[in-house]
Specification:
The protein has 319 residues and is an alpha/beta fold. The chain is built from ten helices and 15 strands.
């Protein structure tokens, strides 16, 4: 089969399209013929081996040579003991930390997958799992009427979180670069901020801050929070992560403002409800661009450099 492989951490130029052996599903696993896969921040971090936590699977070299965690496709084979799906079934899911989505086939535990809603294309389904889980967990922290700030709001997780929050009656301030502000307004954001021209931590106060690309000090976040407010980071630098878990916890005790990390539960229960709402027309899946498999380096660069409005998807084969 064809797969996009890398052997060393670095830039997208490290990626190569190669012929590799097709995987065989083990006990409790299924083999998925991948139709589409989407780009996530975890792919960008895994490619570069940065922040430091991205190297947990391999300190000097990547342990898994094929990235890609959000997939949609059809069951091609069933391993021993796997009973949830049959050959030909359309499925989708987040296969992190297994990875392997940038390939024509991938073998994964069947528990990671869910039936693809018929109303969604494979391209749309591939754009949802990881982003939907993050958006769901983030918005669950906000009560109706709360003031929520979302930094890095123009990507896949942000575009879903804004829609969920607005439907829940949350007041949303969305932060990203100037080229994405009209997109954020169209999603329903009450206010928008261009982070290149304005410091969002000098606005507020906010009841909830969700930072998808965290790199600010805990004191800056605390300044922007209302008393009793909460700030959680989802992605960002290792330094910010450590500060959130240490100084952030201490600062929270002193200021009654809670700072920490958003821990996202994986699995179908975390993303299927949003997929069902998209299938019913209650929410939209925003796809910025679709690249073929042999252009995964370009797809990763487009996403990693912050250009995408919503999700970037890789079409492995025709639907």
């Amino acid at each position: 089969m064809r797969a996009v492989v890398y052997e060393r951490y670095g830039s997208p130029e490290r990626l190569e399209l190669r012929d590799v052996p097709r995987p065989v599903p083990g006990a409790g696993e299924v083999l998925v013929e991948v139709v589409a896969t989407s780009i996530n921040l975890s792919d960008w971090e895994g490619l570069h081996g940065s922040p430091a936590y991205a190297r947990l699977g391999g300190l000097l070299r990547p342990r898994r040579g094929i990235l890609g965690s959000d997939i949609a496709g059809r069951i091609a084979a069933v391993g021993d003991g796997a009973t949830r799906f049959a050959v030909g079934d359309a499925v989708f899911g987040d296969i992190m930390p297994r990875y392997g989505g940038f390939a024509e086939f991938v073998a994964v535990p069947e528990s990671m997958l869910a039936p693809k809603p018929a109303e969604l294309s494979f391209t749309e389904a591939a754009a949802l799992p990881q982003a939907a889980a993050i958006a769901t967990h983030a918005v669950a922290l906000a009560k109706p009427g709360a003031r929520m700030l979302l930094n890095g709001a123009g990507g896949g997780s942000g575009s879903l979180a804004i829609q969920l929050a607005v439907q829940q009656g949350v007041q949303v301030t969305a932060v990203d670069n100037a080229g994405k502000l009209d997109f954020l307004r169209a999603l329903g954001a009450d206010e928008v901020i261009d982070y290149r021209r304005d410091d969002f931590t000098r606005h507020g106060p906010y009841d909830l801050i969700v930072d998808l690309v965290a790199r600010r000090s805990v004191f800056a976040y605390a300044r922007a929070l209302a008393k009793g407010g909460r700030c959680v980071m989802v992605g960002g630098t290792a330094r910010t992560l450590i500060r959130m878990l240490t100084a952030g916890a201490l600062l929270g005790v002193l200021t009654r403002r809670h700072l920490g990390v958003l821990f996202v539960r994986q699995g179908p229960s975390a993303f299927v409800p949003v997929a069902e709402r998209c299938a019913a027309g209650e929410m939209q899946v925003h796809i910025d661009r679709v690249f073929p498999l042999d252009q995964v380096p370009e797809a990763l660069a487009w996403h990693g450099e912050g250009h995408a409005l919503g999700k970037v998807v890789v079409a492995v084969r025709g639907e």
